[in-house]
Specification:
- The chain is mainly α and about 110 residues long.
- The protein has one domain.
- Helices cover about 75% and strands about 0% of the residues.
Length: about 110
């Protein structure tokens, strides 16, 4: 479902920079909402809770933005190192966003 929504957004007539910015912000909002809902409905993959859907959807959008760059840079090393580099890069993006929020003392409370 998230892929269909992202695909429809990408097919729209907006400028490419705006498309990427909206997808990144939506991904960040999904991750934040998923983890914010964690105390109410735990993130459980087996029963596909609402917090899991939001967190995994947001993470996959961020992963989708990072993947093309990581694959191009590390494709010479093989498939597994490229996948590891993609995961590490996605983690670094998420961590840097959290660190930015922490430094500015921005806390989302429910």
């Amino acid at each position: 479902m998230w892929g269909v929504l992202a695909g429809q957004w990408l097919l729209g007539g907006r400028p490419p920079r705006k498309k990427i910015a909206i997808l990144a912000l939506t991904g960040l909002a999904g991750v934040a909402a998923g983890f914010a809902l964690d105390p109410v409905t735990p993130i459980i993959k087996r029963i596909f809770t609402s917090s899991f859907v939001l967190a995994s959807g947001g993470t996959s959008w961020i992963l989708t933005l990072v993947k093309p760059f990581a694959v191009v840079l590390f494709s010479w090393a093989g498939e597994l190192p490229a996948q590891i580099a993609t995961s590490v890069a996605a983690w670094a993006v998420l961590w840097s966003m959290c660190y930015w929020l922490y430094k500015r003392r921005i806390v989302i409370k429910i």
